[in-house]
Design a protein that fits this description.
- The complex is a heterodimer.
- Chain A is built from four helices and eleven strands.
- Chain A is α/β, with parallel strands linked by helices.
- In chain A, the strands form two sheets. Chain A has an eight-stranded mixed beta sheet. Chain A has a two-stranded antiparallel sheet with strand order 2-9.
- In chain A, β3, α2 and β4 form a beta-alpha-beta unit.
- By secondary structure, chain B is of the alpha/beta class.
- Chain B is 28% helix and 31% strand.
- Chain B contains five helices and eleven strands.
- Chain B is globular, with a radius of gyration of 18 Å.
- The chains are: A alpha/beta, B alpha/beta.
- Chains A and B meet through β7, β8, β10 and β11 of A and β8, β10 and β11 of B.
Chain lengths: 180, 192
Amino acid sequence: MSNRKIIVYIATSADGYIARTDGSVDWLERPRTAGDYGMKDFFKSIDTILFGRKTFDQSLKFDRKSVKRNLGKTRNYVFTHKPPRSKLNVTFVNEPIKDFANGLRATPGKDIWMMGGGGIIGSFLDAEELDEFIIHVIPTFIGEGIPLIAPRHRSVELSLLSTHAYEDGVVRLHYRVEKS
Amino acid sequence: MRKVTFGGANSLDNFIARKNHEVDWLIWNKEVEAISRAFWQTIDTVVMGRKTYDVAAKAGSGAYPGVKNYVFSRTLKKSSHRRVQIISEDAAEFVGRLKQEQGKGICVIGGGVLARSLFEAQLIDEIGFNIHPVLLGSGIPLFYEMSRQINLELLECKTLNNGCVVVRYKVIPDIRSQISDLKIETFGTTPI
């Protein structure tokens, strides 16, 4: 088994949402005075991206051109119960998470970016197939929206690996998920 | 004007207690104690909702020591402690008036129900969390859904050696809604 990690790398509002109820992320568009929050370095450390179906559709709608371009640089998996036909460089997955993750981890490669949304993050977390969270907390309350992790009773211990406060008020929290 | 602060200890997924109100996941150490003690010196009043008070009253007197305690409830008649005063009027109006009085800071304690109405009335000035390294998935939420966006300014981000992260934010006042409130006040009775 290789030691590839599955990492949630994401931005949330300070009240814990990854998007508004309708999926929009207009509140993420802020002046980039603090650089790219380590995005370039993170992207170099991964070669695979995992999406939930809604997040994948939403990101295509949001910025089709750059998503299409980026899909060419990584292996991409989209979780869905109804795999559609697509010309994009993605594989649709309708397989138990544990089996899929075992397969992925058995294949040599770089780390794996769990893009979200909250549903797929919750499912991977509850299947004990998430290794780390890197969360960029945006200094704003959006009031209502889609939570980072689909709410479901659980009790998961984390270990804080690092924090960083950017000058524009964004806080990066980096945790390792402790396996029970 | 007295400063109103909302906050407390939360899980990374923004719960302040498990469903059964248990807070067995809280990590307490000397560092937290020092931060907490320094904060309590800046306030002389706590306000809480009835549900928070019920939990606090079950665990003890329900009164935080050394400060005035106000509990908002339309059904409770009498408090269990001489330092606890039950307030049946609108929480936002009451806290709005408290802010104008002389005194130290005011702390909003507990879950998000009371905090939401105070946020919506723009009465909260600062927010402070002690983010614990745990995911609970369900329980008593720190926030209740609000219809409006609130922009914040990061004041502090402090990593504790127990894996907790203390973050403090200042609420950036929403100038636009203040102006529209003003208009209503000034021209409210004048048909345009």
